[in-house]
């Protein structure tokens, strides 16, 4: 499912599809690792409408919600296995 | 002389490595974008002198912020024997592109994969040979912070500077995007890491420090602890130092100057000595304060402060980085003003610069420590201080709020949140000592001059009808409505030059040093007028050095003049409202 990065649920990794920000910010984001094809995760949302804390690879950084609304991500079709589910399979 | 440039993305440890190799004292902090100017230092490597140049961090060779352009300009204009590229070994998935881009402009690279200690802990397995082969340059794992591998790097540098120096060929520059695919391929080939890792200490700490409800209270607690600790450790040191200086005066100076004419002994004893020693006794407090600040800076908390405050800062027209600059300004406003170079948008940068002079720097801290100690009990004093820090932040943000339309901008920014790092004791002490040293240097030059000038003003033509009195009387109509009396107004006048002079000037005007001065203040002031004085001293122009830095960074005389006038007007209005309000309420 395609959605905006700003709408992505916390701690649900998704894949970047398109970065629709200004070219300059896109370049900075790419330097921080966020570019089409890479996996991104929203670690937490700042309070009072503050920025998102994002994680791409080994890098964490903050990005404001307005800009995050310009980035499209694709959620994996199958929800990642929850720990309880995984342990159920193992048992 | 051979020349080598230290290049790399922000916060990869370039300045740490620079200090390691050269023994220099570039500032280091766990905050991307700390270095905003070139720093160079000579070092003897394998028999030849090499000039090592520490550059501001760059994300690629085409970034537009002022600090990045400083680095780009240097790289474009300077003949280099080699480029020492510092990459964060745990972030090669995004940092290799810089190596490829530098390669494409013909840089002679030596690649240092820094933070090898963190890479090891994170389970990274890096094939340096494969990287070296692909990049056509030597690649070394090092840990600049702990010194691992630095000797090997120095040896390598010594042997690889034999070619003629050359300039980078920016005509062949390709956009960073062109290297992304190559970067991904190279990363896949040379770096392996376990697919998932359990949450580390950084994630756990962030859970608390960035908590929507607990985060801000924790910040306040931390600040409060900073002052309590500064007080608890610094005050006994200060008292001891003061006692020592006092006995030096009685045992040596008084007998020694006994034979001199009255004018000279007066100038030496109650001019220079009283003035300067009153200021000097704050050296231990400055030392403790900066050691503690260094701990905060090097921990990585600054970036978290930016994250937490961004929501509020956005409402006053600034962003989270502006809040961090204010915190840096707690040390000294000048580097904080320079630190705004990381902000690309000119208007956003100006608005941030407008707020920084209100940041309560260590020179003002010294005045407030003294006044709070003299007029409030030891239990209240730390809270008085804390309230002044909040006033400082509030005034800064209020100023931004008032002028946010005039400097409207919406600069998008993405700011890295580096992992928390343990401060190194040596650097912490080093930082405290360096600040202490520059404070002492100031105390022995500027302050001596200021103090002598004040002494002359207060003693000529004669102590009863001095020039100082004339000046004080002139300002009295302006300052008495805000509860600032004559002797304080002269001190404020000199405080315009540097806040460090204020206490020294007061000591001379009152004719008493240290403890005596405190007693005198307690007798002539009450808490309301003292707080009004502190509020004024907090808000009006910090010092000429700040004005100069403002002018240099903004490149605008009009803007600088505006900032000065605004701070003077605001200082008066705030003190007036406070003083008259408190009096009206019966305090
Ligand atoms: N764990 C670890 N930390 C390091 C190492 N080298 C540097 N650091 C830390 O990384 C942070 C950044 O170091 P700096 O030397 O200021 O980085 P810089 O590249 O000069 O940063 P900018 O000036 O902002 O571009 C500091 O907290 C250092 O203590 C290392 O080898 N290992
Ligand atoms: Mg640096």
TrEMBL record, chain A:
It comes from the Bacteria. Keywords: Iron. Residues 3-75 form the Ferrous iron transporter FeoA-like domain. Transmembrane segments: none annotated. InterPro entries: Fe-transptr_FeoA-like, FeoA, FeoA_core_dom, Transcriptional_repressor_C. The keyword Cytoplasm does not apply. This is Ferrous iron transporter FeoA-like domain-containing protein. It comes from Jeongeupia chitinilytica. The lineage of its organism: Bacteria, Pseudomonadati, Pseudomonadota, Betaproteobacteria, Neisseriales.
């Amino acid at each position: 499912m395609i959605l905006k990065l700003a709408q992505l649920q916390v701690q649900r990794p998704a894949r970047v599809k398109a970065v629709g920000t200004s070219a300059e910010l896109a370049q900075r984001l790419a330097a921080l690792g966020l570019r089409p094809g890479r996996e991104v995760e929203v670690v937490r949302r700042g309070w009072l409408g503050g920025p998102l804390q994002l994680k791409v690879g080994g890098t964490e950084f903050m990005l404001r919600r307005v800009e995050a609304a310009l980035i499209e991500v694709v959620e994996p079709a199958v929800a990642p296995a929850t720990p309880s589910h995984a342990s159920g399979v193992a048992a | 002389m051979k020349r080598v440039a230290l290049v790399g993305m922000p916060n990869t440890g370039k300045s740490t490595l620079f200090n390691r190799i050269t023994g220099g004292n570039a500032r280091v902090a766990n905050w991307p974008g700390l270095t905003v100017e070139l720093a160079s230092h000579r070092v003897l490597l394998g028999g030849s002198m090499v000039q090592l140049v520490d550059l501001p961090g760059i994300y690629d060779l085409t970034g537009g912020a002022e600090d990045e352009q400083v680095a780009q300009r240097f790289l474009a204009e300077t003949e280099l024997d080699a480029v020492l590229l510092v990459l964060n070994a745990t972030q090669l998935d995004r940092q290799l592109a810089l190596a490829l881009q530098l390669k494409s402009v013909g840089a002679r690279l030596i690649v240092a994969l820094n933070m090898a200690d963190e890479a090891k802990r994170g389970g990274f397995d890096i094939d340096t040979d494969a990287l070296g082969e692909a990049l056509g340059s030597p690649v070394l794992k090092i840990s600049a912070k702990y010194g691992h591998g630095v000797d090997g790097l120095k040896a390598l540098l010594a042997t690889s500077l034999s070619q003629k120096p050359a300039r980078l060929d920016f005509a062949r520059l390709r956009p960073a995007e062109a290297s992304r695919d190559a970067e991904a391929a190279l990363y896949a080939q040379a770096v392996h890491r376990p697919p998932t890792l359990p949450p580390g200490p950084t994630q756990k700490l962030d859970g608390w420090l960035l908590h929507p409800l607990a985060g801000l209270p924790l910040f306040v607690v931390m600040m409060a602890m900073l002052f309590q600790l500064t007080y608890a450790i610094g005050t006994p040191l200060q008292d001891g130092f003061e006692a020592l200086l006092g006995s030096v005066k009685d045992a040596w100076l008084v007998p020694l100057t006994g034979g001199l004419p009255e004018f000279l002994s007066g100038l030496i004893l109650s001019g220079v000595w009283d003035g300067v020693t009153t200021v000097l006794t704050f050296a231990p407090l400055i030392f403790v304060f900066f050691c503690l600040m260094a701990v905060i800076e090097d921990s990585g908390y600054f970036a978290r402060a930016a994250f937490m405050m961004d929501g509020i800062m956005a409402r006053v027209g600034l962003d989270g980085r502006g809040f961090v600059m204010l915190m840096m300004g707690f040390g000294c406003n000048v580097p904080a003003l320079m630190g705004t170079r990381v902000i690309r948008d000119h208007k956003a940068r100006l608005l941030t610069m407008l707020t920084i002079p209100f940041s309560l720097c260590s020179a003002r801290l010294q005045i407030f420590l003294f006044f709070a100690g003299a007029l409030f009990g030891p239990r209240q004093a730390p809270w008085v201080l804390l309230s002044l820090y909040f006033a400082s932040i509030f005034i800064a943000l209020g100023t931004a709020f008032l002028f946010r339309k005039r400097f409207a901008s919406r600069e998008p920014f993405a700011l890295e949140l580096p992992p928390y790092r343990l401060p190194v004791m040596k650097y912490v002490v080093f930082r405290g000592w360096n600040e202490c040293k520059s404070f002492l240097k100031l105390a022995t030059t500027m302050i001596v001059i200021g103090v002598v000038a004040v002494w002359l003003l207060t003693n000529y033509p004669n102590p009863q009808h001095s020039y100082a009195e004339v000046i004080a009387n002139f300002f009295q109509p302006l300052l008495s409505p805000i509860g600032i009396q004559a002797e304080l107004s002269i001190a404020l006048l000199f405080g315009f030059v540097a806040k460090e002079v204020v206490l020294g000037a007061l000591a001379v005007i009152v004719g008493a040093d240290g403890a005596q001065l405190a007693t005198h203040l307690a007798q002539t002031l009450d808490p309301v007028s003292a707080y009004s004085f502190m509020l004024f001293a907090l808000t009006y122009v910090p010092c000429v050095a700040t004005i100069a830095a403002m002018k240099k960074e903004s490149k605008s005389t009009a803007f600088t003049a505006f900032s000065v006038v605004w701070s003077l007007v605001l200082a008066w209005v705030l003190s007036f409202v406070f003083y008259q309000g408190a009096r009206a309420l019966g305090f």
